[in-house]
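Table S7 (text form). Paired inputs.
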Amino acid sequence: MNRKNATALVGCIRLVSAALALLGFFAGTARAQRDLASTTQLEISGAYSYVRANAANSGGTFNLNGGSGSFACNFTDRFSVVADGGAYRFSGLSNGLDSTMYTYLFGPRIRIHKFGHVIPFAQVLLGGGRLNASSGNVNAGENGFSMAAGGGVDLPLRGHFAVRLVEADYLLTRFNRVDGSSATQNDLRISTGLVFRFGRR
């Protein structure tokens, strides 16, 4: 073999080696992303939640701040059943008045695995709510129907964690007016927090 052919052979070997190394790198990266996005059996989330409430009881709008948490049981890669609970405190009320709204919701969640590093989901949850209010020594409370429809985006991290980048829900509640007549409140809930993921499917 002359020097020219040997040089060409060495060049080909280097090119093939580089191509195999590059292929291995991309395969490993894709496998790692699949592992991060893979479905777990259980997910528990904790989040800060902001609610913009359209309070039909008083005809005004209010800001509420609080927290929400959910427990999801994943039956398939796409389908889950979710239990969601939250507590949100009204701000900007008149002096001496304190009010908190609670929600407890249940229903299905559908996940989509087609957006690279993140996992979008959509959900429709039904349940109930409670509105408590106090002023001085006077306390009042009522129960009502509640529903949340919306979705969010999770960013899986290494280990058992994910970041819930955002969750946005149309939150409907039905608490009666002061005179006892039925009223519907059309609210918006926006949440962000952490997700703890357990068990591989």
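Next pair, protein 2 of 2.
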Amino acid sequence: MFYSPVQRLTSPREMSLAVVGLGYPNADRTNRRFEMALCTRGEPVHLVLEPENKFDESAVAVVSARGIQLGYITAERCGLIGTWIRAGEKHEAVFQEPGRTAAVIRVRFGGGRITMPPERADVIWDRSEVGYGEAVDWGC
């Protein structure tokens, strides 16, 4: 059995995004992987622009509901996401699921309620983590 997302469940302004950098400690020494383990499906997360980030001025940090940074949206996606946030786009973001190399969040821009994709309890081999997840926008 495997997860095969064939149908597009949502608008193009709603997407699942990878949160990378879980292996790095936060400046306050909190552990990102531990924080990810505390997050539950549907729990709010916050997107924070970091224009002073020394590695990428378009960086978008992801912070849990408890105020602890989980990591960053991938460099490939943060430019667009940051542009929408700077433009004042109404948005909502929630924790979707943990992964081995990245957390996954669900984000919706333009108002409305987030539509969560089905839980992937039947996954035997998570193809999204090895580059075969083109059918779903994992933000990688």
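Residues 99 and 129 are 8 Å apart (CA to CA).
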